[in-house]
Write a structure and sequence with these properties.
homodimer; about 240 residues; alpha+beta; Jelly Rolls; Arc Repressor Mutant, subunit A; 2 domains; four-stranded antiparallel sheet; 7 helices; about 40% helix; DNA-binding
DNA sequence: CGTCAGGTTGATTAGGATCAACACAGGTGG
DNA sequence: CCACCTGTGTTGATCCTAATCAACCTGACG
């Protein structure tokens, strides 16, 4: 099941043009490439514990991870989804605030935190890229706050499917025949943690979407969206582009 | 009601040491000071509309504003609370994604967006300060996602009161006699928008906290917390410091 | 003195949580 | 090869929290 990463250097890296390194110029890029190292985690493994010292920051190269806040009484909320090209960790913070867990097999491109922080201080491009990515994440978090605060269960599921669909097609690159099958990186339970629901409610809303013809199952973890506009409608998103 | 700001320059500015300018060195600071201008808004005014072109970025000098996401059918969620020293806007984005509304009379220290963006590009300190602030906001947004996804109504109110208390005492500076009165910058309705509740539920939970002796009213918009630890307990936060 | 925004409280409803049973696929080991 | 187990997902019955609908209170202000 574990995918072997078939490259050792950044040429041919699948996230080369979207990750933190996307806007680096020649010299900066050389520095980054020199200090990077890969790490792999299998599905279910914890990448980082809340409260732990963070040894590294990293880009997700392949796989899916979640950022989670969990509390003694067992309540859990996923506060961030990490897909390929997303960044883990933050320069300037020593202690992790959240757990990071691999939900599928994950490959990371890591940088020792100390060295990376020096790079951020010294090379404006990287600081600016970090800033742009942080602000994008902040906007995404705010959209999710609306979802968690105001959307119905059905709308949450629909929004989540659209999110995955958007990220998937843009990852795989070129345009694909319209009714694309979308494979879901999360279990029903992991989705419920992300959507502020229970796994039973998630399951029920999937059934409802299927009954209404909004989605079809290729398998339990792979859906087909015959009409994206219809799904967008259910999600309560404008008919935007 | 409108407070007149009794200063023209940055000396004596109440947020000088916490805002975006906190870590600027002499030269950077001079540049920032040269390009700044003040704007005031009275309670209820909209500072920025979602979809509008952003002419400026700004620091909140005084007053309270909210960042809101609202949707055609009337649903509304406050996705950010802006208190003194918080930053509005983002370099590199032309169009606002959210509405920003003054909930009390607000004074901003503004910078033309174009000029500010140049400064971010050219002066590493400011880019790094922006990054640190953005990452702090991201953490705050993630904590709020937990609140919206998993906390009960009572816990949300308690958490909100603690948030305001924390920000208030740290704003006013020195330590104050223990049972501090905390003045609430938001109406019940504005709180409900922030907490993902209805205003009726907010009101009920206030009544419950009062009945349980966790809070007392100095007035409807000013509460006293006799025992912060007890409130923290209700909020479901650890007994942390 | 009347009006209105902000706030409280009550009665009822509804959406999702909770508790519970069952289905199904994939492994594992006898 | 089959029996068993475990992780994942579905569906049903019931309960409960917060939403909704509604009435009323209070104080500020013209």
């Amino acid at each position: 099941m574990t995918k072997i990463i078939p490259f050792r250097n950044c040429d041919g890296c699948p996230i080369r043009h979207r990750a933190i390194c996307a806007t680096c110029d020649g010299d900066e890029f050389v520095q980054l490439e020199a200090m990077k190292y890969y790490r792999s985690y299998s599905a279910g493994q914890t990448i980082m514990w809340a409260g732990d010292r963070m040894e590294f920051v990293a880009s997700v190269v392949a796989g899916t991870a979640t950022i989670q806040h969990l509390v003694e009484d067992g309540r859990k909320q996923t506060v961030g989804l990490l897909l390929p090209s997303d960044f883990i960790g933050r320069p300037g913070r020593e202690i992790a605030l959240y757990d990071v867990t691999a939900v599928s097999d994950v490959t990371l491109c890591c940088f020792r935190r100390g060295e990376f922080e020096k790079l951020v201080t010294n090379t404006p491009h990287i600081a600016q890229r970090m800033l742009a990515m942080a602000l994008d994440e902040l906007d995404a978090a705010r959209d999710w706050m609306f979802l968690l605060g105001r959307k119905t269960a059905l709308e949450r599921i629909a929004s989540f499917l659209l999110l995955i669909q958007r990220r998937t097609v843009s990852t795989d690159g070129l345009v694909v025949p319209q009714p694309t099958p979308v494979s879901l990186p999360l279990t029903r339970e992991a989705m419920s943690d992300y959507l502020g629901l229970t796994l039973e409610t998630v399951s029920r809303q999937f059934s409802k979407l299927k009954a209404d013809g909004i989605i079809e199952y290729a398998s339990k973890r792979e859906i087909i969206i015959p009409d994206v506009a219809a799904l967008r409608n259910v999600a309560g998103e404008g008919a935007a582009y």
